[in-house]
């Protein structure tokens, strides 16, 4: 599920750190009416795409989570340089963000960005624009023209009720996510950044909690990890099925294709489907007949598999 980002770090900018928090995948996205394996995989894919955008922009990126084997998950996703730390408390999102903020400032970050992990359309250039807007607001509020300035700014989510991003310049993050967090952040003195962005940037705001949200996100353009779970023709999320790796297609009469190493899978219903190389679990090339995998399938096409 590799989701590499292109480096978007502006030259001469203050050091920026990003913090994201990830709850255990068994608890993630409970509002989505999906089979548990697909719900967990979708939550991870959206997080990976969000994190990749942050990692392309920030000088340091940290994830606060007690998700088991998180470093392995991030390495397989193609984001190995992200720091993963365990939460000091189990009191939810805001303490996790505050912990990450403290760690990043100890590493010398002047600017800290906290973001939700379900922005699968997030683009690095849009994230850079939000940081630039926050820096501009902080500088405008400073009486010293040579100073970085101080201040906090937030981006409301697509509903306008929640918060998708919070940026703190040279002061503590003071996060107030969850619930009516846009209102809470504004009341705490953080400036709304959407009105001061250079242009509408919907990828900053399109969080995903429902099937409708996901369809709207797909219309904006999903990141590669999430896109791998979606039918490229219909734009709909594929269906989950357990599958078993079958004998190589070299034993079939059908010809191989350029991207197909000759493998196939058998569904629970006994249907044999080709397994393209692009759908191998986390890019693995070592699959053996009899191995059991989770799969996302659309029609008779295998979109993705994982262990």
Automatic annotation (TrEMBL):
SUPFAM superfamilies, per the entry: Nucleotide-diphospho-sugar transferases
GO molecular-function term, one example from the UniProt record: phospholactate guanylyltransferase activity
Keyword rRNA processing applies: no
EC number: 2.7.7.68
Classification via InterPro entries: CofC, Nucleotide-diphossugar_trans
Keyword annotations of the record: GTP-binding, Nucleotide-binding, Nucleotidyltransferase, Transferase
UniProt cross-references to PANTHER family, sorted A to Z: 2-PHOSPHO-L-LACTATE GUANYLYLTRANSFERASE
Name under which the protein is recorded: 2-phospho-L-lactate guanylyltransferase
Originating species: Microlunatus kandeliicorticis
Upper taxonomic lineage: Bacteria, Bacillati, Actinomycetota, Actinomycetes, Propionibacteriales
């Amino acid at each position: 599920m590799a989701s590499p980002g292109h480096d978007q770090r502006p030259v001469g900018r203050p050091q920026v750190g990003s913090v994201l928090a990830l709850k255990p995948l068994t608890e993630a996205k409970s509002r989505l009416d999906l089979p548990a394996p697909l719900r967990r995989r979708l939550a991870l894919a959206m997080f990976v795409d969000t994190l990749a955008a942050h990692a392309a922009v920030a000088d340091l990126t940290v994830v606060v989570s007690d998700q088991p084997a998180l470093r392995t998950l991030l390495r397989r996703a193609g984001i190995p340089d992200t720091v993963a730390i365990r939460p000091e408390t189990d009191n939810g999102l805001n303490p996790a963000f505050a912990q990450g903020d403290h760690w990043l400032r100890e590493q010398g970050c002047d600017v800290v960005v906290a973001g939700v992990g379900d922005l699968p359309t997030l683009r690095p250039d849009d994230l850079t624009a939000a940081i630039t807007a926050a820096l501009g607001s902080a500088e405008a509020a400073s009486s010293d023209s040579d100073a970085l300035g101080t201040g906090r700014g937030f981006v409301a989510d697509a509903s306008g009720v929640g918060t998708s991003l919070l940026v703190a310049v040279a002061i503590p993050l003071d996060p107030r996510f969850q619930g009516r967090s846009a209102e809470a952040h504004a009341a705490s003195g953080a400036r709304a950044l959407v009105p001061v962005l250079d242009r509408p940037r919907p990828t900053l705001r399109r969080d995903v909690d429902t099937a409708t949200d996901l369809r709207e996100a797909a219309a904006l353009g999903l990141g590669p990890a999430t896109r791998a779970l979606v039918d490229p023709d219909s734009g709909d999320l594929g269906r989950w099925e357990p599958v078993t790796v079958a004998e190589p297609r070299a034993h079939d009469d059908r010809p191989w294709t350029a991207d197909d190493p000759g493998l196939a899978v058998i569904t629970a219903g006994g249907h044999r489907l080709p397994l393209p190389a692009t759908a191998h679990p986390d890019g693995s090339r070592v699959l053996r007949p009899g191995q059991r995998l989770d799969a996302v399938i659309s029609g008779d096409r295998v979109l993705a598999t994982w262990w």
